[in-house]
């Protein structure tokens, strides 16, 4: 694979690379919450599986599925991270038939993806469709100047204000607990600290659970 600087490929990066450590930290954070069948949407080259399954015999994760639009990334993931509990498939995160193909998941991870997608509400609704009613969605995105303001990154469609990110998730039926990331630290907001990313721990609201049962 070619390293472009946008996609994290641990084998091509120095161990102390700031972007690598920052991305890895989100998976380390997620280890406290993951359980059951885990979907890593837009998984890239699949290095997250290596982190989540370090304690593979504790039984917390029954299966890990990584889906990415890039066929080359999936091929790489299968070679590098094709463990006993992992599966990697090429697919579109907006595809409404994903739930028919793979079923529902107790945990869904969506790291640094929503800002790349024009139809962001459609994307989050698809994640909701894939999530078990008692499951958890962990989704992250960088802070920005607002969804209607051009952002500096050529890879991003938009970057959100905090209230816009929360509104997007709540409008799609999630209850949101927000954490903040600066470097390798993810925590609840502290006065005086400057953060660069938001990490939302989401559960389906009561109305969404009821809708799912109808």
Summarize the structure.
Helices cover 29% and strands 27% of the residues.
Polypeptide structure, described:
This protein has an 8-stranded mixed β-sheet. The N and C termini lie far apart (46 Å). The protein has a single domain, classed as Vaccinia Virus protein VP39 (Rossmann fold, 3-Layer(aba) Sandwich). Helices cover 29% and strands 27% of the residues. By secondary structure, the protein is an alpha/beta fold.
Spatially, the strands of the biggest sheet line up as: 3-2-1-4-5-8-6-7
**Judging by the overall fold, what is the CATH architecture?**
3-Layer(aba) Sandwich
Order of helices and strands: HEHEHEHEHEHEEEH
Strand content: 25-35%
- How large is the radius of gyration? 16 Å
Return the structural class. Answer: alpha/beta
Query: How many domains is the backbone divided into?
Result: 1
Mean pLDDT: 89
Strand elements, count: 8
The residue fraction in helices comes out at 25-40%
Q: What is the name of the CATH class?
A: Alpha Beta
- Poorly predicted sequence stretches spanning 5 or more consecutive residues: none
The CATH superfamily is Vaccinia Virus protein VP39
* CATH-assigned fold name: Rossmann fold
Terminal CA distance reads 46 Å
Characterize the largest beta sheet: strand count, sense, and whether it forms a barrel.
8 strands, mixed
Net shape:
globular
Number of helices: 7
